[in-house]
Specification:
This protein has 219 residues and is an alpha+beta fold. It has a single domain (4-191), classed as Protein Transport Mog1p, Chain A (3-Layer(aba) Sandwich). The protein has five helices and nine strands, in the order E-E-E-E-H-E-E-E-E-H-H-H-E-H. The chain has helices spanning 46-59, 121-130, 132-135, 167-178, 186-189, and strands spanning 4-6, 13-16, 19-21, 27-33, 63-72, 75-85, 92-101, 106-114, 183-184. Strands 2-3-4-8-7-6-5 form a seven-stranded antiparallel beta sheet, sandwiched between helices. The chain has a two-stranded antiparallel sheet with strand order 1-9. The protein is globular and about 50 Å long.
């Protein structure tokens, strides 16, 4: 159960509590973590936040495409787009998410999709257009390449229109469509804000959520 009280699930079918899929292969899921958020920096420090997230994703073998502070239902949040190798076969999975942190908990909305049998077509076409020298770029959030999958212009949104069925295009479009429809329980919105990584002993005492606080309405 999560503090999300409303979410537009048009086109999605529930597979299990908190997980939905659609006919294009997208997987949408919602999560609540009653723990201090593990974000590497506060939302008002976007460069530190991006650098830390880039390192974390690279350490897992993937690549951070973007990390953009914003808000969901008026609550400060960070949007991430990540790519990960599939491991068992060639290709990549793409994940788009909003992490909505509070001082002692967080809510995450995630959309993901993986490449099918055909892989690398988007990258090859775009590299042919821009040239190899302009295709790969230094990571915008890290000094040098932090490891993992390389950062390149092929993942930029400007190319999505030319590849409407690519999993990155689908993930980005779904997250953009869903975000304005998300609403939270007022008690979650009223929690103390996330101020950045901290020793748990320095946090103010937070009372446990009341029974029945986290629910889904109209989902």
């Amino acid at each position: 159960m999560t503090p999300i009280t409303s979410l537009d699930l048009t086109g999605f079918t529930e597979r299990e509590p908190g997980v939905w899929t659609d006919t294009a292969g997208l997987v949408l899921s919602v999560h609540f973590f009653p723990l201090i958020p593990d974000l590497p920096a506060a939302l008002h420090e976007p460069q530190r936040l991006g650098a830390g997230l880039a390192q974390l994703v690279a350490g897992a073998g993937g690549g951070l495409i973007e990390a953009v502070p914003g808000s969901v239902d008026g609550v400060p949040a960070v949007r991430q787009l990540v790519k990960m190798p599939l491991g068992s076969r060639p290709g990549q999975a793409f994940l788009g998410s909003w992490t909505v942190p509070r001082a002692g908990s967080s809510t995450v909305v995630k959309v993901q999709a993986a490449e099918g049998a055909t892989t690398g077509m988007r990258e090859a076409v775009i590299m042919a257009q821009v040239g190899p020298a302009d295709y790969f770029r230094p990571h915008p959030y890290a000094d040098g390449q932090p490891g993992g999958l390389p950062y390149h212009v092929g993942d930029h949104e400007q190319w999505d229109a030319g590849f409407p069925d690519h999993p990155l295009t689908l993930v980005r479009a779904a997250l953009n469509r869903i975000t304005p429809t998300i609403t939270f329980d007022d008690r979650f919105k009223a929690l103390p804000p996330f101020g950045g990584p901290a020793d748990p002993r320095t946090l103010p005492h937070l009372p446990p959520p009341k029974r029945g606080w986290f629910r889904r309405k109209g989902v």
